[in-house]
Amino acid sequence: MLDIENTIGFLLAKVHQRGFSLFKEELDPYNITPPQFSLLAFLWQRDGLSQAELSDKSQIDRTTMGGLIDRLAKEGLVQRLPHPEDRRAHRICLTARGKSLEKELCAIAVTVLDRFTSPLTTEECDTLRALLIKMRR
């Protein structure tokens, strides 16, 4: 008989749900979801990426990415600007408000990650990260 509660897939799903919930709780006052935070984080690294580039980097399909961008634009955090090399594409650029939240939201992300991984040692976190990267490919 399959011990579903101890399968890797089930455990990964439950751990993801817990992490998502912890992070969402901290982001709620900013009216931002964890996936929206990820999009902002990519733009804090390199502003002006296209929707396709953001989709590739985040491994989120383009339709879902369009919705995330729409909601962030509605919140005044990003704007779509014409792409200089492709008339069909737009660059997704941070607004001043979107840029101003970087330090505060990244500090929240670090705090949540520390809380989330508190049962693990530094070495265990490093091992887990390496294993997850290996499995993602």
Give an overview of the whole structure.
- The chain is mainly α and 137 residues long.
- It has a single domain, classed as Winged helix-like DNA-binding domain superfamily/Winged helix DNA-binding domain (Arc Repressor Mutant, subunit A, Orthogonal Bundle).
- Helices cover 64% and strands 9% of the residues.
- The chain has 7 helices and 3 strands.
- The protein has a 3-stranded antiparallel sheet.
- Strand 2 and strand 3 form a beta hairpin.
- The mean pLDDT is 94.
Describe this structure in a few short sentences.
Helix content is 64%, strand content 9%. With 137 residues, the chain is mostly helical.
- CATH superfamily, called what? Winged helix-like DNA-binding domain superfamily/Winged helix DNA-binding domain
Compute the number of helices: 7
Distance between the termini: 30 Å
CATH topology: Arc Repressor Mutant, subunit A
Strand content: 5-15%
Count of DSSP strands: 3
Summary tags:
7 helices; mainly alpha; three-stranded antiparallel beta sheet; 64% helix
Helix and strand arrangement:
Elements: H1 8-27, H2 34-45, E1 49-50, H3 51-58, H4 62-74, E2 78-82, E3 90-94, H5 96-100, H6 102-116, H7 122-136
Antiparallel strand pairs: 1-3, 2-3
Helix pairs in contact: 1-6, 3-4
